[in-house]
Write a structure and sequence with these properties.
This protein has 223 residues and is of the alpha+beta class. The chain contains 4 helices and 10 strands, in the order H-H-H-E-E-H-E-E-E-E-E-E-E-E. It has an 8-stranded mixed beta sheet. It has a two-stranded antiparallel sheet with strand order 1-2. A hairpin with a 3-residue loop joins strand 7 and strand 8. Helix 3 packs antiparallel against helix 4. The longest helix has 21 residues. About 7% of the residues have low confidence. It holds the Pfam family FBPase.
Length: 223
């Protein structure tokens, strides 16, 4: 890679530009999905900033609550229950950030967070056609030792969003309209798929924008 040439490049493909380009391929689109993604990106930027200054802001440590985990019971059933894994302060903050960002987008009707025992149903005035499932800060047990942590999310479309039910959030993965993760470490990287390939974006702190740095990511076949 020619880093000198890359540093002088001015025709940057930001994640906003990328999503708008994808939207233009669908003339029937009303922009709802684009608005939703922009709020997810905003949440990722906020959490990234909080992770970077967690020690200074006293966000490292326990918040005194427990989150929800899944335990595998033989032979094949999964039982969801509260365990003694105490929530980190940054967990709680990250969850609040994403819930508020998603609700304020006006494009969601159901939010399912790993941090909350119950799903969040958005009030009718702010309700939209999408369900978002997410873990606001996966790997939070690594916060204190500075290991990479991240946000995971998936987006489903809900047909009848005027009266959403929990069953509408329990859809198979093949029904997702988008999925991705944002990893917070030495750099902040957001990997996104909207159904037509996978692309990676890296946050440029000087611009405050995610820039396309890993286009069309593929896994090399081993066989």
């Amino acid at each position: 890679m020619d880093h000198a040439a890359d540093a002088l490049r001015t025709d940057l493909m930001t994640i906003t530009r990328y999503v708008l380009n994808e939207q233009s391929k669908h003339p029937e689109s009303r922009g709802d999905f684009t608005i939703l993604l922009s709020h997810i990106v905003l949440g990722c930027k906020f959490v990234c900033s909080s992770v970077n200054k967690a020690g200074l802001a006293k966000l490292i440590g326990l918040a005194g609550e427990t989150n929800v985990q899944a335990k595998k019971e033989e032979p094949i059933t999964w039982v969801v229950y509260s365990v003694g894994e105490e929530q980190k302060k940054l967990d709680v903050l990250s969850n609040d950030v994403f819930v508020k960002a998603l609700v304020s987008s006006g494009r969601t009707c159901i939010l399912v967070s790993e941090e909350d025992e119950e799903a969040t149903f958005v009030e009718p005035a702010l309700r939209g056609r999408y369900c978002v499932v997410f873990d606001p800060l996966d790997g939070s047990s690594n916060i204190d030792c500075g290991v990479s942590i991240g946000t995971i999310f998936g987006i489903y479309m809900v047909k009848d969003f005027t009266e959403p039910t929990l069953d509408q959030a329990l859809q198979p993965g093949k029904n997702m309209v988008a999925a991705g993760y944002c990893m917070y470490g030495s750099s902040c990287t957001l990997v996104l798929s909207t159904g037509s390939g996978v692309n990676g974006f890296t946050l440029d702190p000087s611009l405050g924008e995610f820039i396309l740095t890993h286009p069309d990511i593929k896994v090399t076949a081993l066989f």
